[in-house]
User: Fold this.
Amino acid sequence: MAIGDADTTNTTTVEIQSTIDVSSSFYIHPCNSPGLVLVPVPFDGLGYRSWRRGVLRSLCLKNKLGFITRECVKPNSNSSSFRQWERCDDMVTSWILNSLAKEIADSVKYVNTSFELWR
Assistant:
């Protein structure tokens, strides 16, 4: 391998690492998973306002509120950011479903987006 090749490889690695924007709505922290529960008590039909406030607060803290308010718009399927958006939206959907009682979650788990689920 030539010296120039090694430099190119190192430069590419640095460029890839520097493109991770932790302030982006598309960023998912390594400690976040689809099994995460946003609020301590799942919504079971009682205490909606308190549950709603807890979910909104949690999503805001995770920089994912835009997925349920439609501020984070779904890109076209041929866009380079489509897969990132889809991955994050599925994560938000999972978090909300995990924050619902099983009976309620079962009745809404086939929605297409977190926005639809929230509505």
User: Anything to note?
Assistant: The mean pLDDT is 89. The radius of gyration is 18 Å. The helical segments are 3-18, 48-61, 66-69, 82-98, 102-108, 114-118.
